[in-house]
Each structure stands twice: as structure tokens, then as C-alpha cells.
Give the backbone structure.
Amino acid sequence: MSDQTVKYLLPEDRMPKSWYNIAADLPPMAPVLHPATGQPVGPSDLEPLFPREVILQEVSTEREIEIPEPVRDIYRQWRPAPLFRARRLEKALGTPARIYYKYEGVSPSGSHKPNSAVAQAFYNKEAGVKRLTTETGAGQWGCSLAFAGSLFGLEVNIYMVKVSYQQKPYRRALMETYGARCVASPSVETSAGRAVLEKDPDSRGSLGIAISEAVEMAVQREDTKYALGSVLNHVCLHQTIIGQEAMAQMEMAGDEPDVVIGCAGGGSNFAGIAFPYLGRNLREGTKTRLLAVEPAACPTLTRGRFAYDYGDLAHLTPLSKMYTLGADFMPPGLHAGGLRYHGMSPQVSQARHLGLIEARSYQQLECFEAAVTFARAEGIVPAPESSHAVRAAIDEALRCKAEGKAEVILFNLSGHGHFDMQAYTDFFGGKLEDLTYEDSLLADSLARLPQVSEPA
Amino acid sequence: MSDQTVKYLLPEDRMPKSWYNIAADLPPMAPVLHPATGQPVGPSDLEPLFPREVILQEVSTEREIEIPEPVRDIYRQWRPAPLFRARRLEKALGTPARIYYKYEGVSPSGSHKPNSAVAQAFYNKEAGVKRLTTETGAGQWGCSLAFAGSLFGLEVNIYMVKVSYQQKPYRRALMETYGARCVASPSVETSAGRAVLEKDPDSRGSLGIAISEAVEMAVQREDTKYALGSVLNHVCLHQTIIGQEAMAQMEMAGDEPDVVIGCAGGGSNFAGIAFPYLGRNLREGTKTRLLAVEPAACPTLTRGRFAYDYGDLAHLTPLSKMYTLGADFMPPGLHAGGLRYHGMSPQVSQARHLGLIEARSYQQLECFEAAVTFARAEGIVPAPESSHAVRAAIDEALRCKAEGKAEVILFNLSGHGHFDMQAYTDFFGGKLEDLTYEDSLLADSLARLPQVSEPA
């Protein structure tokens, strides 16, 4: 075998025909509660926000949910996505470990996000919706929904977290190239945005604020719905095509991962690579390690509380039981803006709470160091979000080296960093710093978590 | 068949095992002349610049030249590159034409350039070279040689045309991420650069100047060679893998192109997609139209002269017979910096001179309009260079619509525009203008072409 990076490509006819739904195998979860009544929400409560098919997916416990043929037709432009054996990286690290990465940067918008954006745009189009609103952090989700909207002739309005809007003007340019409208959040367009600006005119924004704005705009208009890029069950569902493909490709490679790694912001990327393996662990008793990696500056899984909380700052969303830093926790403005969310997918949270997955956090400098090592070996420049998974994969490989173990490491390289080169420029220029928050801020934010009496 | 974009992927074992050399089929060309003596150069004259294998390829007339296995191993990370049928674009245009595009943006650096960069780095490494110098316009070539250098442990020094260095800081960041050194040209590091700066301290630079600087640095050091990203025969040779793959993929699609389109700066991208078809035209009498597209602001093939000229401003390179605007012609600072070269591949020039290919020029605004239409339909944002081919493909498709003809159009989408989003931002902001030069400047530059008595 050559000492070069090896690509494993599935034939198109082996692209999964259904998404895998972890709800079929995960122990039952605490119900989602209505923000006004505190009672469990029913599907009809979600109708102002989402089309019917999406709501059904959100609450489904069917193990397999068919991917509609028109969605598969679009996926095929870049899927099945490649899986690589990182032989050049292994050599650079001098590790006996075998490192594989699934690469989702091959999508038109450069990340895994279109897996859900295309599906959500399709279901909305089918339901006669004319316009979608959404939030975006670093812009990966906004670009992907803009792309999906352009395919289905849907108008797309995007509230982009202000710090990223300023740090990443080229993500905004990409959204506009796809024909979407992108606004810095907090904005004066919504009462949620105006309320934040009144208290803090210099607010850098957060995903929690941007979600409030997008939800507010969606519920006001009959022809408009809301689309969320992570956290929710249906988004995790759509991303499982990643892990399902990876499983088939690892089989092609004749290898079986000891550990599967993904970065986690809202959780859907991690869910995408990990849930098919988690389901197998639960059904068949396999013991594949599953590792979620998050920023130390926004450590939801590692320092948050497993509790009921709102998904947004203005408390417009339902309450979910999840790991949370508190809906008004304001994380520092790190470059991995896609990981800058106070909450975590309830399904990922449940898995963590039950000890079914591991979690780890890293500072941003050590992530960029890992990203540069990776880029020089493998040629692909990782997005700052993905660099967290790269860091963890490299650390696992170095542990294997120290222990003399030839373990198999699989991670999801969720996107490329072409629109994040300012961060790399800052890194090389010595202008990038590790970011922290005051412990008291987190304690205060957790102390303000809503008091909810959990239904029996 | 779906109305979505369709992908045609060659299996890896059908990746070409050899490059196609047009010199085997093209009528003999005028000899390359030594800049000092005016006599035809022999292989040994090129030895200060290039390793032996590269020189042999430059002068070879063998039809097939084997791709070394280590180069193929690296190619396999992203090759065979996909070919797409642009059904969504066809629908958006309402054309009966069938539009196909070969997509080279899947390479790690995002363009077709690694096809030659990897090969050149390999041959230099084999020859014991420690360091490569090169020039880059928009940065696609610089990034690609930086990538290739990182794979083979070669130091890479890049002279980047100053206007692009300023317009495209993120290309520079990418080169640095790969570990290369990037300097704005004209620089004070070379006598060629200092001479330009003395006359014009505000010089925006040109590929002709940057080549002089890179060549000067290479000839000064024993362990250093020079690598050129286009123009020369061996570079065109390495790019023919594009057209060879496309031919096999068009066969998979059950279609045959009536016209093959590529943008042309130095000519190697156009050669890559077109030469395999040109060779077939020459050998088998097929009549596939071959269309080279260039910027109206640097119209080498459409307004230049077919004459002997230097490849660089300082007259350090040999003299080649080619279409040229004159080595001291200073094109305006258009965003498609990769097409901003005064000369043209002698092989492409010869084909044009003999009427074997067509050429057309476009202004930059109409190219960006076409690029946005393409991005909204196909999801991929073209590089400004590639947008010239997109414009021509769309115009051919609209001609087919007007004429009611279902012709087959194939173009090479040579790279993505992720590092060129400032140009898109300027375009949407109304800040982008068509660029022209004074006719008298071109006339003067052509009047200064060297007086060469062509060998019989």
C-alpha cells in the first residue's frame, strides 16, 4: 500500500436510502415543554414553526425514515462523501494508530449542513411555504440553507450572529451569492433584537439571540416558517447519513473504529457521525467509543448542567431537557462560531447523561495548531469548528503512540476553512488568543435556569 | 431522469496512467531561442531552471508520457475529478443544449493547478532539489505548489503579483498554512524587482515581473529550481489528465461535446481540457469545436501578435513564438489575476495560429453575472478565472436556445471562488467595473517586441 492518503468512495447506489433515527434505540427522553404552559408540547404546537413532515420526524420513534427521492437526487451532487485514511498524517505523527476521516467539506457550501438544509427546504416547499427564516453562527448553516433555498425557489432570511458577521464577511457574501438575505443579529428588525440592543448596544450577539429573531419573524407570517441548523431531533436525523456512509466505507477499508470523534456545537454534526455507531452499541452491545469535542470557551457538555432550558434568549422556543450553560450565557467571540451555543441536542445530551458518549473540550489555539498540522499533511484546511475534532483525533493518535497501540480512529471533518482564513491569518500573526469567561458568569447563568417541575 | 444536476464519476482504476502530449500530433513548432544568443536552446540550457525529467517532457514528442506511480497515488486523493451535467443550469436558461462541466475545484487547493504542481514537485524531489521558487497571479498556482511542496518536504518561495497579494490576502494565508513563503512582487529581494520599483514605486506587479524574480532567485542557488504554473509544454502536458478523464466521463454520459470550453491565461487550463480533443481532431478528423476564453482586459489570443517574445519582463527566460501583448504590457488589475499574463502557451498559440481552436474575450462584469447565475443553479461558486468559461458556456447555450439546437457543451470549471469572495462582494456592492487599457499602450508594447530572425 502506498504511503499516501487513501480515498474510500462508496458507489452512488450504496448511498443510504433512509436516515437512521436514534430515538428508536435511545432510552426514552424527558418531554419537550411548552414555553407558556409548561405542559408537554404536541405536534400542533410546533405548526407555526415547521411543516408537518418535519414535526413528524421530530417526534418519530421509527428506526428508519426514508430519504425522499428528490432529496437523494440533490445529495448525489456531492454524496456519498469520501472517507480518507490519513496516512500522511499518521506518518507525520509517527503513530501506530490508523486515522480515518469522513470529509463533508465536498458539499457546495463546504460543510455537512446541506444534509439537513436540503431536506428541510424540500419539506417546506412541499408544504407550500414561501419563505424560511433562520439563524447562523459562523455561517455554515446560513450558507447551506441559502443554497438549499436557491434550489427550491424559497426566499431565505438569515440572522447572523454579529461577531461572526464582522469576522466572516465572505460567508455573508456566499449567502448573498445564493440569493439569500443576511442580517447581523441582534438587529432592530425584531423586538427580541431591539430588547438586547437596548440593554447592550455593543452586543456581539449569540446563537440564542439570533434564534429568537428568526423565530419571531417566522411566527408573524403565514407563508413563512423557521429552520434550525442543529439541536433538534430531525436535524440530527438528517445528519446520520454521514455515519451510515462512514460505516460502509470503514467496511470497504477493512477496519473498525475504536473511537469515533465529532465536534459538537448544537450537536447535529456529532450526532451525524456518532449516532449510527451509538445505535449499534445499544442494539448489539458493541463498545465503540464516541467522543464529542467542544470549545473550552463554550463547554456545554463538559461544564453545563443537564436541565430544562429554552433554546433561545427570548424564551420563544419550547423547553427541552439538555446540557446547557443557560440561555443567557454569553460565550466569548471565538472563531469556531458554529460551536458557540449555550445548549446541546437533547438526544446528544441524553446519551451523555447516560454515559453512552464521552465529551472533551479544547482551547482554540491548540485547535488551530492541530489544524495546521493536518493541513500540511493532508492538504485540506479545516474549518475552526472541525479543528476541534482534528485536535482530539491527533491527541488520541499520540496517546496510541505513547501506549504503543494500533487503535483505529475515525473523525468527521465537517467542513473546510476557506471562509475562515482570517482566523488562520490571526493565528500565524500571533493575534489569536485562548478565550475564557468568568466562572461567576456561568454560575449566574446556571442559577437563572428556569424552575421546571418535570412531568412524571 | 431527475431534473437535478447529475454527477459522472470514473472509478479510480480508470484514472489515466499517462498524460497526453499534443506535440505528437500538432504540426512542428518554431524552436525556442536562447535569450542571450538567439540560437535554439538545447536541454542543457534549461538545466539551471528545471530538473532533467521536466526538461525531457518539455521537448518530448512521444504521444503518451507515463504518470509516475507516486504522482498517481497523490492524484487519487481527489481524482478522477467529477464531471457534472448542469441540468439545473439548463433549466434556468431554458436551453435545449446539454451542458456538462468538469470540476477541478475538488483538489485540496481548489483548482486544477495541483495536476502540474504535484508532478513538478515530485520530479524536483527525485532530482535532489531542496527549494522551489515560483510566481503566482491570483494565487491558485502558488497555493498548489505550496501544497505539493508540503507533501515532498520542499521549501517553496512564491512571488505573488502585488495587486493580487493585496486583493486576495486569504490565498496568501493558504500558502502560509501549507508552510510556504509568499512575497509581494515586485519585491526588493531581486534586481528585477528593484529595477521595476525604481521606475514605478507603486507598481501593481504582473506575472511577467514575478516570473523574472522567481527565475533570478532560482538560478542563484545550486539547490533551488524554478517551477512555472502554466505556458510551458510540460505544464500543458500535466493538465491533459483533465480532458482525458472528461472524454471517458462524456462516454459514460452517452454524449459527445460539440464544443469544449476553457479559460486561458497562460493556457495550461485550456490545454488540459482541450488538447485530448484537439489530438483526436488532428488524428481522426473529428470536428469538435475548441474555445479558449480570455479577459478583454488582457486579450492575448484575440488582440495579441503571434511572434517571438520573452516570458518575463526582465528577459531572463528563453524566447518563444507565441501570441503575446508584449512582455512589458501592464494589464489592468482585474480580479481574474490568473489570466493576467502577456503571453500564451506556445502550443495553444500554434493551434490558434493554424485555426485549430477559437478564441473569445469577455469583460469582467459579464463574467461575474454568469458566475452568479451558475452558483444559484449549481451551488458552486466559480473562481473569477473560471467565470470566463462559464460566461462562454452560457452564451453558447443561449445561442442554442435562439437557434433551437440541442448541442452538447462541455466546459472546465477550473476552480472554486472561495478565496475570491471580495470580488463577489464588490460585484454585489456595485464596486466592480469593466477594465480597459489604452490602445496606444498595447500598440507601443507590441512595437517593442524583440526583433528576432526566425531560424529556417
Notes: Residues 233-252 of chain B form the longest helix (20 residues).
